[in-house]
């Protein structure tokens, strides 16, 4: 927390805006004052939380990131974009059948096996559903072909009309769209813009294909563990509307106020592993808010705590 403490002791001077310079942020004069107030209120909340963490009252610490000048409503509008629709739930999904006679390890991290691309940044666009979709397909494609290819979220934002671009979507619909289009373009050929644009999908630039998807039994963390261990990275949706999630920094995230119903789910992420830290079980989750979030873009979320934050409520992965 050296980074945070530097700001705490000098918030009366311009040094409190070092994060603005680090993240290349510029404001108009009226906007500058408003953003500073938002930022200082967040610093106060972080300090209070971390003092309680020091006293053993929390299992995780909070800290600043590139989005620390956003209000709660802006977080929800710009960075949360999972939109579950009853019309699509379980439609076209293949039934989950766990592998038998396999040993499930106590710890998994698919980054070590090369199934995970570097952390990406959705920017001010509610396209988390697209990043979760590409993340799990990137893993399955690597597992099948031996080649890790970064896939295009922009392809999904522009072309997958059943989802709603920067205004939200669901991964299962994206998997079925990729199946219907016979593939998704590479990130290199169809780079990210962070805004809706016209569809320019090119079949000659396809980086991976998909033959369908599997829905993991809702709310079943053991099934999710089995899938992560035997299949690879899995797309999930979570309740991420709490301030404690927005500025999570390190440790095992444990938010008692998290909901786990379908209506509670606001954000799509990628489970790339699991394990136990200081006696606390966790899911290793890749976010799409850049590397300044959490631990280089990752968060450890509570596991085996009654499906906290709904991490196993709508879990799925693509077939290739």
UniProtKB/TrEMBL annotation:
Q: Which UniProt keywords are listed?
A: Disulfide bond, Hydrolase, Protease, Thiol protease, Zymogen
Tell me which domain of life the UniProt entry assigns to the organism this sequence originates from: Eukaryota
Q: Per the database record, which ranges form the Peptidase C1A papain C-terminal domain?
A: 104-319
**InterPro entries documented for this protein:** Papain-like_cys_pep_sf, Pept_asp_AS, Pept_cys_AS, Pept_his_AS, Peptidase_C1A, Peptidase_C1A_C, Peptidase_C1A_papain-like, Prot_inhib_I29
Give an example GO molecular function: cysteine-type peptidase activity
Q: Which residues form the Cathepsin propeptide inhibitor domain?
A: 17-75
Q: Name one GO biological process term.
A: proteolysis
- Tell me the leader sequence span: none
Q: Which family does it belong to?
A: Belongs to the peptidase C1 family.
How is this protein named in the record? Cathepsin L
């Amino acid at each position: 927390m050296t980074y945070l403490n530097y700001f705490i002791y000098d918030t009366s001077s311009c040094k409190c805006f070092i994060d603005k310079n680090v993240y290349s942020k510029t404001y108009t004069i009226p906007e500058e004052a408003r953003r500073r107030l938002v930022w200082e209120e967040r610093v106060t909340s972080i300090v209070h939380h971390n003092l309680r963490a020091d006293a053993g009252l929390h299992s995780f610490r909070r800290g600043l990131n590139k989005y620390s000048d956003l209000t709660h409503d802006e977080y929800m509008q710009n960075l949360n974009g999972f939109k579950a629709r009853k019309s699509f739930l379980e439609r076209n999904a293949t039934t989950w059948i766990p592998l038998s006679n396999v040993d499930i390890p106590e710890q998994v991290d698919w980054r070590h096996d090369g199934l995970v691309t570097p952390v990406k940044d959705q920017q001010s666009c509610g396209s988390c559903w697209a990043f979760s979709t590409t993340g799990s397909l990137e893993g399955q494609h690597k597992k099948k072909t031996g080649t890790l290819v970064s896939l295009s979220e922009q392809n999904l934002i522009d072309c997958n009309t059943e989802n709603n671009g920067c205004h939200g979507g669901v991964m299962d619909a994206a998997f079925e769209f990729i199946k219907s289009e016979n593939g998704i373009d590479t990130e290199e050929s169809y780079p990210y813009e962070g805004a809706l644009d016209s569809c320019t999908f090119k079949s000659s630039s396809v980086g991976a294909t998909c033959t369908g998807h599997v829905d993991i039994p809702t709310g079943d963390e053991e099934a999710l563990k089995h899938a992560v261990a035997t299949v690879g990275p899995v797309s999930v949706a979570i309740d991420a509307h709490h301030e404690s999630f927005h500025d999570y920094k390190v440790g095992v995230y444990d938010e008692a106020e998290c909901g786990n119903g379908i209506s509670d789910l606001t954000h799509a992420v990628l489970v790339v592993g699991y394990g136990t830290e200081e006696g606390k079980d966790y899911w290793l989750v890749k976010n799409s808010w850049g590397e300044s979030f959490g631990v280089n873009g990752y968060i450890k979320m509570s596991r085996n705590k009654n499906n906290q934050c709904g991490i196993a409520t709508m879990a799925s992965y693509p077939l290739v």
